Amino acid sequence: MAPLPETTAEATLAAADDSGDSEALGDAWDYRGRPAVRGSSGGWSSAAMILGVELNERLTTLGIAVNLVTYLTATMHLGNAASANAVTNFLGTSFLLCLLGGFVADTYLGRYLTIAISTAVQAAGMTILTVSTAAPGLRPAACKDPTGDGRVPGCAPPTGTQLGVLYLGLYLTALGTGGLKSSVSGFGSDQFDESHAGERRRMARFFGWFFFFISLGSLLAVTVLVYVQDNVGRRWGYGACVVAILAGLGVFLAGTPRYRFKKLAGSPLTQIAAVTAAAWRKRALPLPSDPSSLYDVDDAAAAGEDVGGKRKLPHSKQCRFLDQAAIVEVELEPSSPSSGKKKRKKWAVCTVTEVEEVKQVVRMLPTWATTIVFWTVYAQMTTFSVSQAQALDRRLGPSFVIPAGSLTVFFVGSILLTVPIYDRLIAPLARRLTGNPQGLSPLQRIFVGLFLSILAMAVAGLTERHRLSASTAGIQLSVFLIVPQFLLVGAGEAFTYIGQLDFFLRECPRDMKTMSTGLFLTTLSLGFFLSSGLVSVVHAVTTSGGRRPWLANDIDKGRLDYFYWLLAAISTANLGIFVAAAKGYVYKEKRLANAGFIELHVEEVAVHA
């Protein structure tokens, strides 16, 4: 893949900045372990080879998710509730495994090997899925006598082997996706030197192109790939993904001689565990009245310990229990007579700065928790909204039928429209009204996204009620009836996603930036799992006692509108909790300024799928 073009002005600036092309970088190495040379490593020629991997990941994951319900109900003969849970469990596992992928990359393998191995695992999973959809013995026999009453006795259920092979393919793909998403953007940014003005400008543009490739993969998934699955054959759609993944892996590996590699930084999860364990072990010790007597970065540096470039953070009064971790029980002993360095086991004593970094993560948890419900709403766009589309008139002209899964193109389009509308219209207006140079703060953006999700579920409930009334009268309405709920959730994602990302990147401690992505992605994961749990509970409760189920296999015999209104009520209560938490939150920049600390740092910009 050729490097992406730069504007004339940027090229001129880059030429001025690149006078030191033969300079060896101090914090990056080539694949042979030698210091990387600026002119012959990294930059766009390397980053472009990494972008293709992310495009294929998005194409594959979304291409499976948006159209899996139709395969599970029509071919595998699962019910609507079971099919919806299979999709949300797949997506939830994919995002949850990002934490594992990030831990492995930061602690053991590094980002390059994590990407290469994860891509191979994803290709293996898609190969199994392709075989599962192609081999007749791995699918139940076609229905012989559908009755339309939701039980369909003429349809044979899938065997354990058939489901086992299908789920093996799905969860191998999820494992590969988790490894990729945790490392692709980070490894791409590693190809640029933040201390070099020209490369720092190019890195900012890299994240813009990263988002573009994510969006391109999403559009291809919900249009071309879904059409191939429905009209040519699912095995051909999945097989095309396998070819694309392997081609992307080949291009990625071909760039090995030009990549820049950074040393393993270690996982911040280890620091959180160490602070928590040390505080718990010393919970009975009295806290000193003077916080300056606690162990801190300057004490460690004075003792000759390598503090890893950490900047001292001010002590705060919140979460005082964690301060126990910084109590020094005994005098630290020299590690050796000649070195002059002290022995310090992080699992026994931590610095105040390390404790404060963990405290900051704790402060972010209320916001983290209250954004989970949004992704539960989001999950309905790939499950029950697709089931709605199947029951509506999808004809466009005399011969073309819109695939049910392709309705999500309105969802993706809404995201792409909302971002420039915010930048061009909403942000300038908000700057004039609030005086905030950002326009809306991260928490305000999240608020807008959560509000739009409530509106989306209320509209979806009203729309489904109208569709049921028309269906009872024998009228089939147009599929475009459900477009508004896709548009509202898409706009909500644009606000929530960017607000969350900005919040976690800005507020996470400087040395925990990699974990901020993991925190963000776990909200998606838990939102999908919450959707699965909610569907299971609602289905069990509403089918007991012979009552009319809300989530029936035949959507015309259920009350999906009640389920949407339930989600609207839950989202409304969640928004109230979010507002209460957001009112008491003080941004890190303001808190440090009030404490007299000025944190100098390079602005970091990142976008993750």
TrEMBL record:
Its main location: membrane. Keywords: Membrane, Transmembrane, Transmembrane helix. GO terms for molecular function: transmembrane transporter activity. The chain crosses the membrane at residues 90-109, 206-229, 235-254, 400-422, 443-463, 475-498, 519-542, 562-582. GO terms for cellular component: membrane. It is a multi-pass membrane protein. Belongs to the major facilitator superfamily. Proton-dependent oligopeptide transporter (POT/PTR) (TC 2.A.17) family. Pfam families: PTR2 (PF00854). The gene is LOC125511573. The lineage of its organism: Eukaryota, Viridiplantae, Streptophyta, Embryophyta, Tracheophyta. It is found in: Membrane. Gene3D superfamilies: MFS general substrate transporter like domains. InterPro entries: MFS_trans_sf, POT_fam, PTR2_symporter_CS. This is Nitrate/chlorate transporter. GO terms for biological process: oligopeptide transport.
